[in-house]
From TrEMBL:
GO terms for cellular component: membrane. Residues 33-337 form the Beta-lactamase-related domain. Keywords: Membrane, Signal. It is found in: Membrane. It holds the Pfam family Beta-lactamase. It comes from the Bacteria. Its main location: membrane. Residues 1-17 form the signal peptide. This is Beta-lactamase-related domain-containing protein. The keyword GTP-binding does not apply. InterPro entries: AmpC-like, Beta-lactam-related, Beta-lactam/transpept-like.
């Protein structure tokens, strides 16, 4: 494994600016420290870009694109995007609507002839905003255990996996994140345009914008500067399981770089790709804070349009703050990387609403009273252990996270919106911990003295 300490950090091409318009005066150095903490924590490798009004404030690669050859990540490294793909799919649909080749209120059956009768009221709009009620193929029991993810599938073959199953709710009545819907959207793009999904995006989005490092990922192709994907394994990282890229298709099969995504960010509001009316439609909240291929939210008083992605070996996030001219992009080739919290916290640093946790000194003997295993659920254990002078937590199936003491018995997870407090009497070993995350306080009793 690569050395993960600051002195052993593989960081390529760091570009730092003073942070014009950021409330944090030393934003660049603070942002750099935030990312380096995650690298040192052993949970991040990838590329990060933060830009204000189109000017990069931080643009750097961290860790290795290929851990076996120690090839560093750079801003030019290509990463699989996962569900960041959905914004491009939604944009293509809106372009075709502008061209009069479809209406977003057309029934799905107009383009997908085998649609069952139960789908008669499902429209393209429902697919865009995840309100169709169609089951998501990635949620089918045993789907990833039966080898299907390793075989090439046509879009219609993927859709057939769910079309005979009952709808989960009346179309338009609820939100349920749905990858099948975006497979159907890709199919509709092909039917309405007469082109392949990949060909349409290339001709109508990537080429016009000069996004030369973005495209549809094909597993067998030799793609220069493509990062290898990794996932947590026993004792460290392991190569991610193989995934045939026909499977995520229009729901998650694109690759890109941070530089190309910055180009994309600019194009979204300059009228080159969509009319203002279409762009507003995409960024208008429907149910559950979701538009067309974008999540809609408010972060610390700042409007945010964002999406994240997770696919074998990769974790991604892209946040836009339209009224602030800010964009944060985090692309990682480690599946368990905290890309979304990193993107959020980088923005918080700029706004002055987030600060890196300030650690207090804790005697070693006191730290040792926290070491052990704690049960958040019968099969979900949070281990707490020492790594030199650092205190680390690791949940079942997840990567290790450093926690730093901010008050007696109180710890902050580095780079995450999560805190841990320990319950104990005097200097005896802690009897439980409480995980404070997402507005919830979850108590976990101690179940073992050793992690």
């Amino acid at each position: 494994m690569l050395a993960l300490g600051a002195t052993g950090l593989l960081m390529a091409g760091p570009a730092l600016a003073a942070g014009p318009g950021c409330a944090t005066p030393d934003f660049a150095s603070q942002a750099q420290a935030l990312v380096v903490q995650q690298v040192d924590n052993g949970v991040f490798s990838g590329t990060v870009l933060v830009a204000k009004d189109g000017v990069p404030l931080l643009r750097a690669g961290y860790g290795a694109a290929d851990r076996e050859w120690d090839i560093p990540n750079t801003p030019e490294t290509k990463f699989r995007l996962g569900s960041l793909t959905k914004q491009f799919t939604a944009t293509a649909i809106l372009q075709l609507a502008e061209a009069g080749k479809l209406s977003i209120d057309d029934p799905v059956s107009k383009f997908y002839a085998p649609a069952p009768a139960a789908w008669s009221k499902i429209t393209i709009r429902h697919l865009l905003n995840h309100t169709s009620g169609i089951p998501s193929y990635t949620g089918l029991p045993g789907f990833f255990e039966n080898g299907a993810s390793k075989k090439p599938l046509k879009p219609e073959e993927i859709v057939r996996l769910t079309q005979d199953k009952p709808l989960e709710f009346v179309p338009g009545s609820k939100f349920a994140y749905n990858n099948t819907g975006y497979i159907l959207l890709g199919y509709i793009i092909e039917k309405a345009s007469g082109q392949t999904y990949a060909g349409y995006l290339s001709q109508h989005i990537f080429q016009p914008l000069g996004m030369k490092s973005t495209g549809y990922d094909v597993s067998g192709d030799v793609l220069p500067k493509r990062a290898s994907g990794y996932e947590p394994g026993k004792g460290g990282w392991r190569n991610a399981d193989y995934l045939d890229m026909t499977l995520p298709y229009a729901a998650g099969s694109l690759y890109s770089t941070v530089d190309d995504l910055l180009i994309w960010n600019t194009a979204l509001t300059d009228g080159k790709i969509l009319t203002e009316a279409s762009r507003k439609a995409a960024w208008t909240e429907n149910l559950e804070h979701y538009g067309f291929g974008w999540g809609i939210a408010v972060q610390d008083g700042h409007e945010r349009v964002s999406h994240n992605g997770g696919i074998n070996g990769f974790s991604t996030a892209m946040n836009r703050y339209p009224k602030d001219g800010l964009v944060t992009i985090v692309l990682s080739n480690f599946q368990a990387a905290p890309s979304t919290p990193m993107a959020n916290n980088l923005a918080g640093l700029c706004f002055g609403t987030y600060a890196l946790p300030k650690a207090i000194a804790v005697p070693k003997a006191t730290v040792d009273t926290y070491v052990g295993s704690y049960a958040l659920a019968p099969n979900f254990i949070l281990k707490v252990f020492r790594d030199g002078d650092r205190l680390i937590t690791q949940a079942t199936g997840q990567g290790p996270i450093q926690i730093v003491a901010t008050a007696p018995g109180e710890f902050q997870a580095v780079g995450l919106d999560a805190r841990i407090s320990f319950k104990q009497t005097g200097d005896k070993p802690a009897t439980a911990l409480v995980l404070h995350q997402g507005g919830r306080d979850m108590e976990a009793p101690r179940v073992a003295d050793k992690p």
